[in-house]
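Design job #97: recover the sequence.
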């Protein structure tokens, strides 16, 4: 058993699952693997995410040390989000998740339909 931040875990993988669990966290991290993104760009890339939910998920990812929020001293304010060094370490795992997802749905070809969204 591992105690971390006042919670007990059976395995460190449970900690990682807690870090990336959330409806939009993996999608956000996946977008940030391509480079820094401004909030409005993220909203366009994730059109089903509400502004409130996106803000909450970004704050959680930032407080967990997976992303960095960079504020530029200009008017109007410019804010970019990018992966931290810890977040960069997740990039190969995100790729593996996408690859597995592709393999998985290919196992059920009659159940797959694609839309014309430009999202990854």
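Job complete. Output follows.
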């Amino acid at each position: 058993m591992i105690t971390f931040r006042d919670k007990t875990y059976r395995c460190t993988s449970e900690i990682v699952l807690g870090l990336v669990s959330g409806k939009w966290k993996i999608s956000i991290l996946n977008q940030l693997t391509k480079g820094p993104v401004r909030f409005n760009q993220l909203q366009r890339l994730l059109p089903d995410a509400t502004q409130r939910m996106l803000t909450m998920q970004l704050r959680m990812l930032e407080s967990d040390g997976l992303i960095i929020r960079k504020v530029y001293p200009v008017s109007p304010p410019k804010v970019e989000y990018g992966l931290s060094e810890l977040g960069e370490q997740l990039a190969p795992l995100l790729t593996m998740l996408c690859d597995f997802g592709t393999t998985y749905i290919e196992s059920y070809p009659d159940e797959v339909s694609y839309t014309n969204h430009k999202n990854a």
